[in-house]
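Need tokens for this chain, all 199 residues.
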Amino acid sequence: MYEGVDTVVLQNELAYQDMLPVGWRVLAKSPDLPMVASMADGNVRILQVCAAIEEQGAVEKKDEKSPHSADIMRLEVKMNLLLDLVGQLLAATRPRPPATVIRFNALGAVWKSTAPPRIGEQGLLEIYLRDSLPQPLTMIANITHVSPEGQVRATFSPPGEAAADLIEKLAFRRHRRQVAGVRQPRRSGSETGITRMRD
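Here are the structure tokens for all 199 residues:
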């Protein structure tokens, strides 16, 4: 039965899609092992923070019977507010690239660019996942296709097992929220106020 949500896929794998700031930097030479390891560690940290922020609601529900759950919730709200403020301050001093629709997973990405790279270029694709996070997810990418309209396709160098696993979970959480967003109005019996996230 059709649930009203199209599954977002890329290279036959579940993918994450959103409108996000995306940057591209050409690499003059292939990155060395220390650079690759440093990027992999940074990506894991960014994805772990994203997971912690996104799953905050699920943690709160589990702790509802705890006598300290209200205090923990207040602390989490304050921490999120602090993260947002720090992210805004850093973004003001270090402007981000323009936002565009991007679809990606651990294998590659597709996005629209007004100044697309050339086919065959190798570079760093920087994806800013959240306003509150100043660092982008940084992937080593090879450009495989550029359409006349500026749609760019790239394949990623393997990001490491930990980062790949976290990207897969990021895509799954987005898909789960989309499905829940479609199913919830049906359970309530009302068609008003339906908000659909971008596929």
